[in-house]
Amino acid sequence: MIALQIETVLKPSSLDLVHHWDKAGASGQIPGYAGHVEAIGRAQKYMKTGGYIGIGVGGVSSLLAIAQVCNGDSGEACTRVRFTEGGKFGMSTIGGTLAGGMAKSASGSICVALGVSTGLGGVVCVAALIGTGAWVGTTLGGMGGEYMGDKVYELIQP
């Protein structure tokens, strides 16, 4: 069904495909298709690495916030910041992962026409959608995690 929709939108001509066989890498392929697939693979690898770096930076940031509060005060404020920063980091990681995954699923259908027509535009579209989804998930997850950490702290207080 999707193939028929793509075929209807693109209206590929068999003469065009055969004429441009040397640009695609094999006869019968869409011109430039192999190059677009390689570009998407490279972008995915960089984005995945960037995600791991972001998680590491978030963890270090939470640890530094805890250390800053706990160095000056080892009482109630230190215990509270451990809960709030721990919740913030955990939920921002989970939220960013889930929202980035949902954006990844949606980006295929949204960016396919742009990718076929322009190539690089499709890669940029996918990167923008996944990046935005992950940022929104991280931001909202962090806010929710901080709130939940504070509530858990209040529940365990005598």
Fold blueprint:
Elements: H1 2-10, H2 14-19, H3 21-24, H4 33-72, H5 76-118, H6 120-156
Keywords:
158 residues; elongated; mainly alpha
Plain-language structure description:
By secondary structure, the protein is mainly α. The chain has one domain (42-156). It contains 6 helices and no strands. The protein has helices spanning 2-10, 14-19, 21-24, 33-72, 76-118, 120-156. It is elongated, with a radius of gyration of 23 Å.
In short:
This protein is mostly helical. The chain contains six helices and no strands.
Instruction: Work out the radius of gyration.
Output: 23 Å
Taken together, the total number of domains comes to 1
Structure annotation, total helices: 6
What does the overall shape look like? elongated
Terminus-to-terminus distance: 61 Å
The proportion of strand residues reads under 5%
Mean pLDDT: 78
Regions with pLDDT < 50 over 5+ consecutive residues?
Answer: 17-22
Could you give the count of β-strands?
0
* Fraction of helical residues: over 70%
Major sheet size, sense and barrel closure = none
How would you classify the helix and strand content by structural class? mainly alpha
Order of helices and strands: HHHHHH
